[in-house]
Amino acid sequence: MKIAIHGRNIKEHTKAFVQEMFDELSSRGVEIQISETYNGFLEEAGIQRSNPLVYRYAQEIFDANFIFSLGGDGTLLETITHVGKREIPIVGINTGRLGFLATISPPLVKSAIHNLFNGYYTFDDRSLISVESDKDVFEGLNFGLNEFTITKRDTSSMIVVHTYIDGEYLNSYWADGLIVATPTGSTGYSLSCGGPVVLPQSSNFIIAPVSPHNLNVRPLVVSDNSVISFEIEGRSKNYLVSLDSRSKVVEQTIQIAVKKENFKARLVKMNGDNFLNTLRNKLNWGMDTRN
Question: What's the whole-model pTM score?
Answer without folding.
Answer: 0.91
